[in-house]
């Protein structure tokens, strides 16, 4: 994994990163969050993956992610996930 771009956003208490990941197939958001958390040596609850992109036929994926300073900072900024209608909570 290679960091392509990194920006420290002190107002939002996060680091905005773009990483290049070599993978055989699309890693998916859950696996990408795990890889980013392992790279920065933090918990997965600090990471939000915004996008996964690649060029057709390439095995290099660009992962855009936000790495928050704390889970509380993440809760203040990120939108709440809505429950599905009719789902038992």
Structural write-up:
The chain has 89 residues and is of the alpha+beta class. It is 22% helix and 38% strand. The chain has two helices and four strands. The chain has helices at residues 28-40, 71-77, and strands at 2-9, 14-22, 47-54, 60-68. A four-stranded antiparallel sheet has the order 1-2-4-3. Strand 1 (2-9) and strand 2 (14-22) form a beta hairpin. It is globular and about 40 Å long. The model has no long low-confidence stretch (mean pLDDT 89).
Key features of this structure:
89 residues, 4-stranded antiparallel β-sheet
Count of alpha/pi helices: 2
Q: Which geometry do the CA atoms define? A: globular
Low-confidence stretches: none
Question: What is the average per-residue confidence, as pLDDT, rounded to a whole number?
Answer: 89
Number of strands: 4
SSE order in H/E notation?
Answer: EEHEEH
The level of helicity is 10-25%
Computed over alpha carbons, the radius of gyration is 14 Å
Query: Structural class, from secondary structure content?
Result: alpha+beta
Sequence of strands across the biggest β-sheet: 1-2-4-3
Q: Report the span from N to C terminus.
A: 38 Å
Note the main sheet.
4 strands, antiparallel
Strand content: 35-45%
